[in-house]
Amino acid sequence: MTTVNENMEAQHEEPQLSKPSDSKSLVVTTSAFQFLVPNALPTEELTNENQIFDPLSTYLWSEGENEKTLETLGTDEPKDKAPHDRPYWTNKTEYLLAQVGFSVGMITIWRFPYLCFHSGGGSFLFLYILMLFLVGVPLLFLEMAAGQRMRQGSIGVWKAISPWIGGLGYTSFMVCIIVGSYYSVLLAWNLFYLVQSFQSPLPWLSCPTTNNLTVYDPECVRTTPTTYFWYRKVLKATDEIEMGGLPVLHLSVSLFVIWLIICISMTKGLKSTGKMLYVSILLPYIILFCLLIRSLMMKGAGFGLKNLLAAKVSALYSVEVWRQTGSQLFLSLGSGFGSFTAISSYIPQSNDCVTDAYAVAFLNLVASVTVTVFVFATVGNLATKDIELCYMTNIMTLTNMVSAKMLPPEAKPPKNVYQDPSSFYSWWFNSLPEHIKIAILPYLVECDLSDQLNKVMMGPGMAIVAFSNIVTVFSGSTFWAIVTFMFLVNLGLSTMVGIIQGIITPLQDTFSSLREYSKLFPVGVCVSMFLGSLLFVRPSGSYYVNLLDDYWASLALFFIVILESVAMAWIYGARRPVYHAGPPHLPIYRWLWCFLSPFVLLVLFLSTLIHLSLKKITYFAWDSRISNEVTRTYPSWAKVLLIVLILVTILPVPAYFFYIIVRQVSSVTMIHSRTTVIFKPEAKGGSARALPRLQVRQSLKKTNKMDK
Fold this sequence. Notes:
- With 708 residues, this protein is mainly alpha-helical.
- The protein has helices at residues 2-11, 23-36, 43-49, 67-74, 92-103, 106-118, 122-150, 154-161, 167-196, 218-221, 225-234, 249-267, 269-296, 301-309, 319-333, 339-344, 353-403, 415-419, 421-430, 434-440, 449-456, 462-470, 477-510, 520-533, 541-573, 587-614, 636-650, 652-678, 692-707, and strands at residues 618-623, 628-633.
- The chain has a two-stranded antiparallel ribbon.
- β1 and β2 form a beta hairpin.
- It is a multi-pass membrane protein.
């Protein structure tokens, strides 16, 4: 026994450690250490698993004894090194374009203006900006830094940070699959609009005629041609979600073309994708700027902007507004998908990701505000047109009644009212004597500009309706329609490339054999995603898109980003530099990661969960009988479907947690068996196995020497 202990002292340079008095005490120490530091597994076991974890990833950071150790480790290379042949982005510009392209997409266009109008206007903007820089940017920086330091996708990164939450990467992976399936349908809708734009006059400018070619479709007459074209020609929407049907043919073809473009870009690799980004990112911003300038010159744009800037103070105290703001932030920004991590894994570790995070967040905000200003200016013009039509109806009614001597001559509107009803009608009506007002009021239709604006801003699909409407007021409307929907398709494609990158990169890092099929593997992923997306191009498919986008996506993303904050702050250690060559983190980041972000995200998660549990979930549906949108309640099975999807999405986290526990128990059993045999008095030959903690320290020293 003495000889064995002397050999141990000669092998290790840490005489301060107490020697075990017997084999049993060593077994207890080994077992306890394995449970406290699950990453410190025997070297041969790590080799078999093809995964080496950071040995201090489960230490809680503190002000005291671990400070020097953490500072030393902060400059080390991570043990999980990516393959040496891992590709890089050609330059920093292409990398930033990829990040911005993923962040700024159709969800920004699809939901931001609608939520801004219905959630307090200027108050919503204030809350969004506040949450963007206090919660969004720190989490964005976290994902970028983790990806470029670990040089892996989301699955490998969170396994490296701590095996206990290794399932978090799989959850992000599943979110990318589900969101990518219905997000591609948004692109298919816009691609169909783009194809329909190559004709003059545009098909949504007027109502179609019936079979005898002399009478307009009565369903279209009861609404606007633009709304009719959206629901009946593009979506072929049913009146309820329960009504199924086969996938719509023209949308299925558009969806196939979208996935074909994505598949080709993914098989070409980073170099070809980077070149594509110059067009798919820069061109939409140029088009958007031109559309903004043109919309601000339209009549009624000022009225729309007044409603945008009008802040509702009550919205600041509404939990529902905060919930919707947080949901929009993470859906629009893209945190939690794992795509930022995947894209950053192809950039050198010396990259300054702090600046990148602020740049992406700022450009996302600029795009969101720009699109919102454009939409509000446009719908202000549309509302002004509707109110002028209402005024003209009243003017013609009064003129005919005066001619028929049913009203006194004083009730006849003057000529200047005909020329500019929006400017002179209200002034003329208010100047009438009181008895004349009382006489004509029963014959007038109430014309309220705010009500007209509410009708235009009804439904989250109003952004596409607004884009299709604005081209109708331009000279050369066909040209502007082509340009506008090309802008929308380009935005969506760049985001889809980021989502698919969040699927392919983690799988290739986890299963290295897939890298051998660099062409075939992306094709298989895109084909599978295309088949899954066909569910959303059925006549009731748009209602499923709204169901997932409104209720499922936010819960899944809140769950992911909460665990990301906790993992970085309390498991990996907020004081440890998470990116290789940058300066130590500012205290503000540690405070945000440790306290503010988890608290805010937890409140948002619970409020969303309560909203889903206690309140009825509703959707906008088309009612063909009245040719208008109506609010319907989702059936009970839709809520069950949501619960199943939520559970399936978050299941990898507890499943992988229990897998690690089982693995640790089996490892402790093996170590217990080995130490018992070694320390028996009758053991012959060989040297005693080192304590696991000593193994960790030796491996750290070897790593430091190699880095030097």
